[in-house]
Amino acid sequence: MSISFEVIHKDIMGRTGKLKVGDKTAKTPLLLPVINPHIQIIKPEEMEKLGVEALITNAYIFSKSEEFRERALNEGLHNILNFSGIIMTDSGAFQQSVYGDVSFTNTETVQFQRAIGSEIIVPMDIATSPDRDHDEADAELSVTDKRIREALTVIDDGHLAAPVQGGIHEDLRLKAAESVRDMGVVFCPVGAVVPLMENYRYRDLVRVVMAAKEGLSPSSCIHLFGAGHPSMFALATAMGCDVFDSAAYALYAREGRYMTTRGSLKLDELNELPCACDVCRKHTAEELKKSPERERLLALHNLYVTLAEISTIRQAILDGTLWELVDERCRSHPLLLDGYRELLKYRERLEESDNAVKRRFFYRGSESCQRTEVLRYHRMAERFEAGDISLIKISGTVPSDLPTFDSVFLFRPPFGPYPPELSETFPVGQTEIPGWDDDMVKSGLKGVYELIRSNPETEFYICMNGEFEDIAELCLKDFEERIRYV
User: Fold this and answer.
1) To 5 degrees, how large is the angle CA 106–CA 109–CA 115?
2) Using an 8 Å Cβ cutoff, are 70 and 285 in contact?
3) Are residues 312 and 3 in contact, defined by beta-carbon separation less than 8 angstroms?
């Protein structure tokens, strides 16, 4: 039985779904904690009790381990790790990128992964560094492509993952994704992005992932390799990433770093533990600092936070509030905010996947004016019929000496004009905004612009109290002969 992926709910490009691997099923978005058989700070059976449905380990480490190699071949990964969920193995490509030749061929690694019972098998791709120029990255991509095709002759039952490489070059990521799509592989990791995240290059990360998404099939399950910090999960999910793997929960604990969804804190500098997990409720900050199990307990806290964020994202997708979560998380760091703003540049593509109706729209600043809901509404404004004489009431009191209007429109920024009959419908009826600011009014006037443009025979009266009249006159200057301000 092969790997299959079923999308159940969507929001932006984010999906909740079911990843079926053989006879096992896991919910997505999905976290794969990284397990090193030699350093199991939290044992896999303990993770399973916490709700972990899948994990990832390294085939190269098992192959070179005197302690575990023969046991893995004889007993299988599930018995050694005492874990009944899905187990994915990485090939050793990371070790190759760091240490050079690992004397482990592509065919050998996929055969070894199959022999030890891995259920998602990764070929020996080349993890192209961000500093590779276009020609170097293209040459490495050609090697990766050949190795995927070679691996498919060995693992021909649908359990092979096909990494999408290409460095920071968007055309190469697109090329790689299209090649993987044409091979018919379902599970598609976007690789070699750890250096981007380590250096807070979230703008480049967005470009890379969106280029890969453009070439992949909508039915592909997308694994963002090495995306281990919960602060960026919402952003990645909004781009359509379904699976994350994390060694950060353990690595950060070793360094005394305490994870939150807003970033990481140094445990030694904390007086309070701002978390409701089991570890933090049973220990004070001082007790945790001095505990002989400090590293293990800190890793457990980090895992709790990471799993909780995955659940939060799933719920946000169900509620149609993923944009609000992305906005909140990305304001925790200026360079995450850069990534968020970069994502908004793709709003036309995002709008194609986003839901037309949602639970609510919370205005959180100028970035909200670029969201998919606003873009869709401005397009919808073209369909409103205005008659011969029409009133758009933006603000203020309508004078009593005006003519009879064929139609009347109210105004709700950042969307724009709407007939009173739509006042209870999404989005105008489910929008919460603070006091008006210039950005939201300019956005709403784009909707007014589309309404006037699509009704070229209509004479428009615009009622406003003068506060934003100079902005309106500037935004609507193309139609000044057909507009009267009252």
Assistant:
1) 140
2) no
3) no
- The answer to whether residues 117 and 76 touch, using CB atoms and an 8 Å cutoff, is yes
Positions annotated as catalytic residues are 90
Q: What is the mean predicted confidence (pLDDT) over 136-140?
A: 98
**In the numeric block, which tokens belong to residue 136?**
């170097």
Q: Report if residue 156 sits inside a domain.
A: yes
Query: Which token pair is 325?
Result: 């979560």
Number of domains composing the chain: 2
Whether residues 313 and 379 share a domain: the answer is no
In this structure, the answer to whether residues 327 and 426 fall within a common structural domain is no
Q: How far is CA 461 from the centre of its chain?
A: 44
| CA 353/CA 374 separation, integer angstroms | 14
Do 217 and 187 share a domain, yes or no? yes
pLDDT at 467: 84
Tell me whether residue 401 is exposed, middle or buried, using C-beta atoms within 10 angstroms of its C-beta: 0 to 12, 13 to 18, 19 or more.
exposed
Strand pairing partners for 39? 36
Whether 98 has a pLDDT exceeding 60, the answer reads no
Instruction: Please answer whether residues 116 and 77 qualify as being in contact, where contact means their C-beta atoms are separated by less than 8 angstroms.
Output: yes
Binding residue numbers: 125, 192, 275, 277, 280
What's the pLDDT tens digit per position in 28-64?
Answer: 999 999 999 988 899 999 999 999 999 999 998 999 8
Question: In which domain, by residue range, is 370 found?
Answer: 366-485
- On whether residue 360 sits in a domain, the answer given is no
Burial (CB count within 10 angstroms: exposed 0-12, middle 13-18, buried 19+), residue 466: exposed
**Polymer length of the chain:** 486
Edge-to-edge strand list for the sheet holding 24-28: 3-11, 14-21, 24-28
Q: Please report the pLDDT score of residue 466 as a whole number.
A: 81
**Nearest of 218, 158, 183 to residue 3 by alpha carbon:** 158
Do 210 and 340 lie in one domain? The reply is yes
Please give the annotated binding residues for Zn(2+), written as ranges.
275, 277, 280
Flag whether 344 is in a domain. yes
Q: Which residues are annotated as a binding site for substrate?
A: 125, 192
Which CA distances in Å does 229 have to 296, 321, 468?
18, 21, 43
> What are the Cα distances from residue 467, in Å, to 396, 415, 462?
10, 18, 13
Claim to verify: residue 333 and residue 452 sit in the same structural domain: no
Going 207 to 210 to 214 to 216, the CA torsion angle's sign is positive
